[in-house]
Structure formats: C-alpha cells, structure tokens
Amino acid sequence: MYIIVGGGGQVGYYLAKGLIEQGHEVTLLDKDPRRTEQLRKELGASIVRGDACEAQVLEEIGCARAEIVIAVTGDDEDNLVICQVAKARFHVPQTIARVNNPNNEALFHDLGIDLIVSPTQSILHSIELRIPHHTLVPLISLTRAGLSLVELTVPSRSPAAGRMILELKLPNSANIVLIERGGETITPQGDTELQEEDHLFALVTTEGERSLREHILTEAES
After folding, report:
1. What residues contact 197, with CB distance under 8 A and at least 6 apart?
2. Tens-binned pLDDT, residue by residue, of the chain (222 aa)
3. I need a surface site. Which of 16, 23, 50, 158 has the fewest CB within 10 A?
4. Superfamily for the 2-119 domain
5. Rounded CA gap, 52 and 63, in Å?
6. Residue 10 CB contacts under 8 Å (≥ 6 apart), including other chains
C-alpha cells in the first residue's frame, strides 16, 4: 500500500518508520531541509523535502496512486489543506489528519476528512476513563456523520435526577439512546424519568455533548 505522510516531526517520523517496517511503501514529506537531511540518514529515500500543502509537490511524489494520505504537522491549517488537496485534486480514498486544537474538530468533520486524530482529546478521554463518575466518555467517533457515541452516569447531585427526559429540553444533537439501570436495559422515551446512577448512552454532536454536560453533569463537575 502506498501511503504519504505530511509532516516530519516526531509523530510523522515514528508513523513513517512503523509503516515502512510493516512493508508499506511510504513517502514522508517535510519542508525543513535540516529535518529532511536528518531523517534521510535513517529512512533513506522515503524522505522527500517539500511542502505537502502544494499540489505540485504531491503530484511529483505520485499522490494520485496513494491509498492513504496522513497529515500530522503541528499546524491544523496545514493538515486540513494537505487532506483537502489529496482528496479533491488526486482523489485519494482515505485521508487522516492530526488536530492539535480540539476546537477545530468540527471544521475537519464538516470538510470531509475521513479520520481525525486529536492527541489532546485522547489524553482527556484516557483520564476520564479512570474517573468513575461525573464525566462524559466518548466511545466511538462516527466521522462522516459528525457524531459520537458517548456514555455518562447521572450523578447524585445532577439537576436531571428525578426529571423526565423531555423536561430537560435537550437539543436534537443530544439523543439519549439507551439507559442501563440496576442490570436492566431501558429504551428511553420522552416521559422516561432519569434516576441517580443511571448509566446513559447517547449519540451527540459537539454541541450535543456540551448540552449533556450542562443539563446532567454541570453541578457534579462544579
């Protein structure tokens, strides 16, 4: 499989190295001459000096036959441009982008990046998984749909405890799809009353996630 990696920092280096060791054909692009010279000493001809944001550079390294383009520079704007050029100009089937600022994730989703990797969110999620209550934990990211499946537990001091779901006036972007209560599984309706320690699963957008935190977890997190 031919894979292009844009960005020769530590992430790009280890990613390219691992892919090469797995037997893939890899081209790693970086525009810093000193960095590319340094990387060539270890990875050889797989390292090419050039700006992965430029269509001409991508054309020269055969982007049209690449199956995956991965953008892992330290600049979100560059990562977005790399993936957009690869997708629109060269019709690359899969694009993967690193997002350094979590606030940019929605934009990347909207502009059709196939897979988004956020180091910041990954660290936050790892921390949240180790805290039993008062957190909202993402389980699955449905990139193309701009949705995530999340789980959370209704804390004892939650403003939602003892209230029906319809009373919370949650937006359509925060859809509670399943409740686990004392070993029982409940399909929620508008008149379903939430109870303390209910384990909720919900499909949300970024806006919907904020709404769940506000309506169910705010007091517990304050």
Report:
1. 153, 154, 156, 181
2. 999 999 998 889 988 988 998 899 999 999 999 999 999 988 898 999 999 999 999 999 999 999 999 999 989 999 999 999 999 999 999 999 998 887 888 888 888 888 888 766 655 555 555 555 456 777 776 666 678 888 888 888 888 989 999 999 999 889 999 999 988 889 999 999 999 889 899 999 888 888 888 888 876 444
3. 23
4. NAD(P)-binding Rossmann-like Domain (3.40.50.720)
5. 10
6. none
pTM for the full model? 0.59
Q: Where are the domains of the chain?
A: 2-119, 131-221
Q: Is 11 exposed, middle or buried (0-12, 13-18, 19+ CB in 10 A)?
A: middle
Phi and psi at residue 104, to the nearest 5°: -90, -5
CATH architecture of structural domain 131-221: 2-Layer Sandwich (3.30)
